[in-house]
Amino acid sequence: MLRLNDLKNNPGAKKKKKRVGRGTSSGTGKTCGRGHKGQKSRSGGTKGLRFEGGQTPLYRRLPKRGFKNYPFKKTYAVLNVSDLASFEGEVNKEVLKISGLLKILGDGEIKKALTVKADKFSKSAKKKIEEAGGKCLT
To answer: What pTM was estimated for this model as a whole?
Structure first.
């Protein structure tokens, strides 16, 4: 029968930590298992992943070209005119629960007169909303 006082770990489950630098007779004294001298015997003695033995690294050998715009890129939440058909009265970012920039595109049809507040409108979207009797406010 299994009892709490009989429980033991599986063999090899608990390994003792290697205690280095505790005298020569311990087996890991003096140089602490690191060998003699050299870069790898020192603390912090490993080079980074991109280190190529002192030759000019790949990221510096390859040419850099162009301009990266990602920190300044504007991203819009996009809605079509057909998506606005289910709303009444005024449509804005608070009603749509959208944070950031909003752009209305002209795909689909709209029959209602709505007041739409957005950051940008496509020409066709603006035309369709105004033809239905609505207003486009930026």
So the answer is: 0.54
